[in-house]
Amino acid sequence: MNVGTNGIVVDQHGAVLLIKRNDTRTFAPPGGALDVGELPPDGTAREVKEETGLIVLPVRLVTLTYLPMKPHGYLMFSFRCLLRGGEITTSEESPVVGFFKSKPLPRRITSFHRERLEAGLTHAEERPLTFTHPITPVTKLSYFLLRQVVYRWMDVKRRLKGEATYQPPPNWDVTTYLLCPNEDGAYLWYRPQKNDAWQLPGGGTSGLNAPWETAVQLAKQQPGHTLQLGHLSNVYSHQNKNQLTLVFMAECASPLPEPSATIGWFVSGSEPVTCHPEQCQIVANAGQVNQAAEFRFFK
């Protein structure tokens, strides 16, 4: 899966920071692909600096969105940012940089960038919005032209200049787990067979479904119970691997599943030794999470 970030920066007059992309010639919030060994807030600050010359501090995740475009799909973190310094500077990727009126936004902007911006500019809650962008025929055609025509032509020009050709961003393995607590503060675990290791509900992505949709579908097959998706609580990454883990709070439909050989309710710190250490770490941090999503490296 492709993973990227956007920075939403507003000045004292309510204008929003936008760039004009050199590939699509459309306006967009500054952002780009997440690097391996980088957390989304850090990737946001880096991309804004590279594309605009401005130094920003990402302070709040406002949207987590998914674009189900073949072959891997696009997961995007959009942050509201505070302006800390720097001077507006254009780059090869962003020949136009500036603050533009947010009402209305410029006409030349893709539908998914517009949706992220409009949601991010108006969303005031600590918990981020989570949604999937619809794929329209125009989106498919634009993506085809971008990959098959624009990028190839840009590579030709780079070769003529003796420059390196376009390198696609890293493909990430994205896993989503659901934390379902009961009234006693214990969390739901399951295992496929009696002698297997205990696991949290959820798992890796499948096809072009959004990661959180896949987790809910897997939960129906795993503990065999319907879980209602709640808010994003934590995002984990590794410092040397392109693996990302999303953690959502969830609620069980009544009645709660009873403990059995394959279903368990364990309080943090009292999990069986067969529980995966990283998943135990996820549960241990759950009690420390407020409404805003937190970003961490696995220890």
Describe this structure in words.
- Strand 5 and strand 6 form a beta hairpin.
- This protein folds into two domains: 2-136, Nucleoside Triphosphate Pyrophosphohydrolase (Alpha-Beta Complex); 173-297, Nucleoside Triphosphate Pyrophosphohydrolase (Alpha-Beta Complex), CATH 3.90.79.10.
- By secondary structure, the protein is of the alpha/beta class.
- The model has no long low-confidence stretch (mean pLDDT 92).
- It has five helices and 15 strands.
- It has helices spanning 40-52, 111-122, 137-160, 211-221, 277-286, and strands at 2-9, 16-20, 27-28, 31-33, 54-67, 74-86, 96-100, 129-132, 173-179, 186-190, 202-204, 227-237, 243-252, 263-267, 294-297.
- A five-stranded mixed β-sheet has the order 4-1-6-5-8, with helices on both faces. It has a five-stranded mixed β-sheet with strand order 11-9-13-12-15, sandwiched between helices.
- The longest helix is centred in the middle third of the chain and has 24 residues, at 137-160.
- Pfam families: NUDIX (PF00293).
- Its cofactor is Mg(2+).
Could you give a quick summary of the protein structure above?
This protein is an alpha/beta fold and 299 residues long. It is built from five helices and 15 strands.
CATH topology group of the largest domain: Nucleoside Triphosphate Pyrophosphohydrolase
What is the percentage of strand-forming residues?
25-35%
Looking at CATH, the homologous superfamily of the largest domain is: Nucleoside Triphosphate Pyrophosphohydrolase
- Number of separate helices: 5
Order of helices and strands: EEEEHEEEHEHEEEHEEEHE
Mean pLDDT: 92
* Count of beta strands: 15
Low-pLDDT ranges: none
Which class of secondary structure composition applies to the elements? alpha/beta
